[in-house]
Design a protein that fits this description.
Blueprint: E1 2-9, H1 15-29, E2 32-40, H2 52-65, E3 69-72, H3 78-88, E4 91-93, H4 95-106, H5 110-125, H6 133-138, H7 151-186, E5 190-196, H8 202-210, E6 227-232, E7 238-243, H9 253-258, H10 260-267, E8 271-277, H11 283-296, E9 304-309, H12 311-314, E10 319-322, E11 328-332, H13 341-364, H14 369-372
Parallel strand pairs: 1-2, 1-3, 3-4, 5-7, 5-8, 8-9, 9-11
Antiparallel strand pairs: 6-7, 10-11
């Protein structure tokens, strides 16, 4: 599907990186980006987001290049989307809808599909009015007088019932996860979760650590379903390592909410391995975005090790860095070549050993909270 990409620069540092990401997202969804149209504004236009002049520029490009789709690098309000479709005469997608579409394509497990459908329906609920405004305007008419429902009311009711059913399914899945975690807690098995920006290399690291065959590809959101494996780490014994969905800037709130059942593995982990693409020029912004999502789901209190991956592409050497308290802060690895993975295993074992010692002390004596994160 031939598409135009549209992005507005509101003066943020990561505008260029955000546009590169939109290109990757569009390709991941199966679109064929033909042209990228950019502009600068102090703030979005209330009616068309981009303003009248820029909307006309996009409309001309759509007509000249025979495009079928326009993708905006922003979240659009239902009214803005409706107005743009009226002007552009083609389908308009915003960043949120695009990410939801990719998630829908990638979801493989029952749980993943349920979570994506819930997020899509929640997003759709705000946009239901689009197809049925003519019925609302009629105020009656043949077959619509009296107590009969308009199509819009019927759709809203059916959608509400479906959302309720999906929420019930997810609540059951969350209870199952909680039971599994309690069982792990009783057996004192440590849990480690991989988190990070999408395409940072989490699944490749997971496969190397756990000798698993999880699908790993150079694309956004290759992993949607949490996969867990038991891994033996010498004197600390077995640990459970989980691979999780990648994060992205402006990750739709509906997705964070819908994927809470999956992301709760992260909240209850003993240690987070925060995987960073060391070769990315915007890696610091990506770290910040991941930490924002971790805060949103209540996982910002879990101890972290930053794993700088792709050091071969960044021209760095495998090493371990410590902070002034002697706590492991960063491990530099290449999941692709295997460089530094032995250092990562040692770092995980050392962190969990320190946590185990702190846990042992806490049973017999009060312990300072700073020691718990040592």
């Amino acid at each position: 599907m031939r598409a135009a990409l549209v992005g507005l620069d509101f003066g943020k540092n990561d505008f260029a990186a955000s546009l590169d990401e939109l290109l990757l997202l569009a390709k991941s969804a199966g679109a064929e980006p033909v042209i990228t149209i950019t502009g600068r504004r102090a703030s979005p236009d209330a009616a068309l987001f981009v303003g009248t002049g820029k909307a006309q520029e996009v409309a001309d490009a759509v007509a000249d290049l025979q495009l079928e789709l326009v993708i905006f690098n922003h979240a659009l309000s239902p009214a803005q989307q409706r107005n743009l479709e009226r002007v552009l005469k083609v389908r308009v997608l915003d960043r949120t809808s695009l990410i939801l579409d990719i998630f829908a394509q990638r979801a493989k497990s029952h749980e993943g599909k349920v979570q994506v459908e819930l997020a899509q329906l929640q997003h759709l609920a705000t946009r239901l009015i689009r197809g049925w405004t003519h019925l609302e305007r009629q105020k009656g008419g043949i077959g619509l007088r009296g107590p009969g429902e308009t199509q819009l009311e019927t759709d809203r009711r059916l959608l509400g019932e479906r959302v309720k059913a999906l929420r019930a399914v997810l609540a059951k899945l969350r209870r199952q996860h909680a039971t599994q975690r309690r069982a792990r807690g009783r057996s004192e098995t440590f849990s480690v979760s991989l988190v990070g920006y999408t395409n940072a290399g989490k699944s490749t690291i997971f496969n190397s650590l756990a000798k698993a065959g999880v699908y790993a590809a150079n694309q956004l959101f290759a992993t949607l379903d949490t996969t867990s494996r038991r891994v033996y780490l010498g004197e600390v014994g077995h640990v459970v390592i989980s691979d999780t969905v990648g994060f992205i800037r402006e990750l739709p709130h509906q997705l964070v909410e819908a994927f809470r059942a999956t992301l709760e593995e992260t909240i209850h982990a003993d240690l987070l391995l925060h995987v960073v693409d060391a070769a990315s020029p915007v890696r610091m912004e990506q770290i910040e975005q991941v930490n924002l999502v971790l805060k949103e789901i209540g996982a910002d209190h879990v101890p972290q090790i930053l794993v700088w991956n792709k050091i071969d592409a960044a021209g760095l050497e495998p090493t371990v860095e410590y902070d002034e308290y002697g706590k492991i802060q960063r491990v530099f690895v290449s999941a692709k070549s295997g460089a530094g993975l032995d250092l990562l295993r040692e770092a995980i074992a050392a962190s969990l050993k320190a946590a185990l010692e702190a846990r042992g002390r806490s049973r017999s004596e009060p312990v300072d909270s700073a020691d718990m994160h040592a």
